[in-house]
Amino acid sequence: MYSFQANTGKRKSKRLIRLLLVVIFILVIALSAVSYVYFRSRGQSDVTGEALMARAVSEAGNAQSAVYRLTQSSGTNTMTLLSTVRSHIYALQCINTLASNIYGPGTIIADMQLLSDCINIITDCEAKMQAGGVLTGSFATLRDNIDLLVASYNPAVQ
């Protein structure tokens, strides 16, 4: 004859239910922790994006004020003002690189072609200045490019 214990199936199913409840409880805690970390990092990402954009707007505004001083200067501090404009354009390029590294390739805060054009104009101005050439047309083009750059941050101005 076979001997078996009564209620063995019930005990096994109770153990299985307890085990499933523990697993479900652990999964709920893990899901809550992952959700918390996700929403916290999402908030940090938004703050970072806002800070990068604010810095870009500031650099573009500083470049614009420097280029307007450049077009109105008498020529004694032209190289200093050109280097100031170059530094602000370079800062915008660095901000683009940061944004691309943080948010992925293709993310830009300032138009790279416009920044490249500004750098080329500044380099051309420096060469013309050393050669004793006229810079009025180059300064006007540089001013127009930087005005476009600033306008890209404030669509209401366009």
The number of helices is 4
* Strand residue content: under 5%
Mean pLDDT level: 85
Uncertain spans, ≥5 residues at pLDDT below 50? none
Question: What radius of gyration results from the CA coordinates?
Answer: 31 Å
Question: End-to-end distance, in Å?
Answer: 96 Å
CATH architectural designation of the largest domain = Up-down Bundle
| General form | rod-shaped
CATH topology of the largest domain: Four Helix Bundle (Hemerythrin (Met), subunit A)
- Under CATH at level 1, the class of the largest domain stands as Mainly Alpha
Taken in chain order, the helices and strands follow as HHHH
Task: Explain how this protein is built.
- There is one protein chain.
- With 158 residues, the protein is mainly α.
- The chain folds into two domains: 7-38; 48-153, Four Helix Bundle (Hemerythrin (Met), subunit A) (Up-down Bundle), CATH 1.20.120.
- The protein contains four helices and no strands.
- The longest helix is centred in the first third of the chain and has 65 residues, at 8-72.
In short:
By secondary structure, the chain is an all-alpha fold.
Question: How are the elements arranged and paired?
Answer:
Layout: H1 8-72, H2 78-103, H3 112-131, H4 136-153
Helix pairs in contact: 1-2, 1-4, 2-3, 3-4
Which terms summarize this structure?
4 helices, Four Helix Bundle (Hemerythrin (Met), subunit A), mainly alpha, 158 residues, 0% strand
